[in-house]
C-alpha cells in the first residue's frame, strides 16, 4: 500500500502508540482487500459499545483513558439503555449503571453522544461522493443510497478510522462497485406504497434474493418519503446484507435505469407484485388473528419528530391496554423536541413510552441477557410492529411471536391488547 508522508509518520508513532496501532490495523485491513492507498474521511458513525456484551464497556473506557481523540465529526450508535431515563425500560440497575460509563468515555474521545441508528436525522449529512466510515446497517445503506456519500460496513475498524481520519480505498468507495446488479420492477398499487410497512416488506423480499448485491428498484411513484427509504434500506440490509440500492429518478446515482447499471445489462430481472409482498407479511406474522399481544414497537429505525407527532395524535385521549408495553423509539435530541412540543406528554398520558438511545433488540430483553439477570424469558410474548428490520431480529434475539402491519393497526393493537388483521 502506498502511504503519504503524513500516514508514514502516524505509523511511525509521531502521534502516539494508539494512533500508530490504529493506522497499522487499517493498512493491514486494506492490504487484505487489495486497497492501493488510504483516503481521508469526513465523518464517522461510531460502533455501539453495549453493556450486554461482556467486557465491551470496560474495554472502551480503557481505550478512552489513553488520551486518544477522534479526528473527524463522530456520532455514536445505539446502546442497551436509555441513559437519561433508564427506569422507563425496566432495565436491571447494574446493567444501566455499567452502560452509563460509556458516555464520559465518549466525551473524553470527542465522540458525540447521539446514540442513534439514524444520525442523518440529526443533520449529519456528508457531501455527495465523500468518503466516510460508518457502523449500523440501516445508516450505512441510507448514506450510500439516498445521500450518495460513500461508506462500507465499518464494524470495529470504524474506531480506527475515527482516531486517524483514514480508511482504505476499497469496496463501495470505488465507482465500479456501486453499479446495480439486479433489476426489480415493482408492480404494486400506489396506495399500497404509501405505507411504511409495505416498503419494509419490499426490502425483505428483495434482500432475500440479492444477498450482498446492489438492487435497482423501479417503483411506480417518484415522490418518495424519507421514512419509506429508511424502512426499505433498513430491511434490505438485514434480510440480506445489502449496502447500496438505487431507485431510478429518486436516488442520486441513478437518474435512469441505464445509469444505475453503468450501461451494463442486469444480472437478473424480477417483477414484484402483491403476491410476493403478501408472502412476506405471512412469513413475519406468527401471531394469530385476534390473539392477545403484550408489546407494540414503533421507531425502527429511530423515529423523526413528525412520526412521533403522528403517534401522539393517534393516542391522544386513548389508553394502552393493561399488560401491553408500547415503545416509540427515537434519538435523545428528537425526544427533547417532542417533549417541548407536548408530544411526549400525550403519549405518556396514554400509557406508552418514548424511548431514546436504545430499542428492544439492543436492550436487556435479549434472551441471553434476561437469563443473566433472572428476568422472564422470553421477556416478550407477542410483538406487533411496522418494521421489517425489527421483526427480522426479534424472533431470534427476544424469542417472541411477531406481526408486521401498518402504523394504525399497531396503535390499535396497543389500545385493544389484541392483534387484528
Walk me through the structure:
The chain folds into three domains: 5-175, Aconitase, domain 3 (2-Layer Sandwich); 179-282, no CATH class; 285-416, Aconitase, domain 3. It has 17 helices and 13 strands. The chain has helices at 5-11, 17-32, 56-64, 93-100, 102-109, 137-147, 157-164, 196-210, 226-239, 257-260, 274-284, 305-315, 332-340, 343-349, 367-372, 388-397, 407-416; strands at residues 38-40, 43-46, 74-76, 132-134, 166-168, 182-186, 215-218, 268-272, 295-303, 325-330, 353-356, 382-385, 401-404. The mean pLDDT is 97.
> Helix proportion of residues, in percent?
25-40%
Indicate how many domains the architecture comprises. 3
Q: Identify the overall geometry.
A: globular
Distance between the termini: 57 Å
Gross CATH architecture of the largest domain: 2-Layer Sandwich
Q: Segments where pLDDT lies below 50 for 5+ residues?
A: none
N to C succession of SSEs? HHEEHEHHEHHEEHEHHEHEHEHHEHEHEH
Mean pLDDT rating: 97
Task: Provide the β-strand percentage band.
Answer: 5-15%
Under the CATH scheme, which class of the largest domain?
A: Alpha Beta
CATH topology group of the largest domain: Aconitase, domain 3
Q: If you compute it from the alpha carbons, what radius of gyration comes out, rounded to the nearest whole angstrom?
A: 22 Å
Number of helices: 17
> Structural class given helices, strands, pairing?
alpha/beta
Main sheet: strands, sense, barrel: 5 strands, parallel
Which sequence of strands runs across the widest sheet? Answer: 11-10-9-12-13
Q: Which homologous superfamily in CATH is the superfamily of the largest domain?
A: Aconitase, domain 3
Amino acid at each position: 500500500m502506498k502511504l503519504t508522508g503524513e500516514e508514514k509518520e502516524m505509523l511511525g508513532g509521531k502521534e502516539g502508540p494508539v494512533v500508530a496501532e490504529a493506522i497499522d490495523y487499517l493498512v493491514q485491513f486494506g492490504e487484505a482487500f487489495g486497497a492501493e492507498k488510504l483516503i481521508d474521511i469526513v465523518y464517522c458513525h461510531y460502533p455501539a459499545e453495549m453493556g450486554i456484551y461482556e467486557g465491551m464497556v470496560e474495554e472502551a473506557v480503557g481505550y478512552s483513558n489513553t488520551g486518544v481523540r477522534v479526528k473527524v465529526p463522530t456520532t455514536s450508535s445505539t446502546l442497551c439503555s436509555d441513559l437519561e431515563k433508564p427506569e422507563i425500560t425496566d432495565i436491571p440497575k447494574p446493567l444501566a449503571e455499567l452502560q452509563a460509563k460509556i458516555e464520559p468515555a465518549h466525551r473524553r474521545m470527542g465522540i458525540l453522544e447521539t446514540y442513534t441508528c439514524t444520525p442523518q436525522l440529526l443533520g449529519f449529512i456528508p457531501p455527495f461522493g465523500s468518503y466516510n466510515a460508518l457502523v449500523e446497517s440501516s445508516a450505512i445503506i441510507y448514506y450510500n443510497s439516498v445521500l450518495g456519500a460513500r461508506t462500507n460496513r465499518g464494524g470495529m475498524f470504524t474506531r480506527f478510522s475515527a482516531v486517524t481520519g483514514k480508511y482504505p480505498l476499497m469496496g463501495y468507495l470505488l465507482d465500479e462497485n456501486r453499479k446495480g446488479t439486479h433489476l426489480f420492477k415493482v408492480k404494486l398499487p400506489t396506495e399500497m406504497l404509501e405505507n411504511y410497512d409495505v416498503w419494509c416488506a419490499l426490502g425483505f423480499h428483495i434482500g432475500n434474493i440479492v444477498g450482498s448485491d446492489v438492487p435497482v428498484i423501479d417503483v411506480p411513484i417518484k415522490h418518495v418519503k424519507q421514512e419509506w427509504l429508511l424502512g426499505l434500506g433498513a430491511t434490505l440490509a438485514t434480510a440480506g446484507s445489502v449496502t447500496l440500492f438505487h431507485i431510478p429518478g429518486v436516488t442520486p446515482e441513478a437518474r435512469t435505469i441505464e445509469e444505475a447499471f453503468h450501461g451494463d445489462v442486469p444480472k437478473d430481472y424480477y417483477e414484484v407484485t402483491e403476491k410476493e409482498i403478501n408472502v412476506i407479511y405471512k412469513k413475519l406474522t406468527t401471531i394469530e388473528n385476534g390473539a392477545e399481544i403484550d408489546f407494540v414497537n414503533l421507531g425502527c429505525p429511530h423515529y423523526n419528530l413528525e412520526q412521533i407527532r403522528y403517534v401522539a395524535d393517534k393516542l391522544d385521549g386513548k389508553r394502552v391496554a393493561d399488560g401491553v408495553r408500547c415503545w416509540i423509539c427515537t434519538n435523545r435530541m428528537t425526544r427533547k423536541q417532542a417533549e417541548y412540543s407536548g408530544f411526549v406528554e400525550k403519549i405518556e398520558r396514554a400509557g406508552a413510552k418514548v424511548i431514546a438511545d436504545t430499542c428492544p433488540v439492543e436492550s436487556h430483553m435479549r434472551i441471553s441477557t434476561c437469563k443473566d439477570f433472572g428476568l422472564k424469558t422470553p421477556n416478550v410474548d407477542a410483538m406487533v410492529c411496522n418494521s421489517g428490520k425489527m421483526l427480522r431480529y426479534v424472533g431470534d434475539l427476544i424469542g417472541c411471536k411477531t406481526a408486521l402491519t401498518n402504523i394504525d393497526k399497531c396503535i390499535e393493537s396497543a389500545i385493544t391488547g389484541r392483534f387484528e388483521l
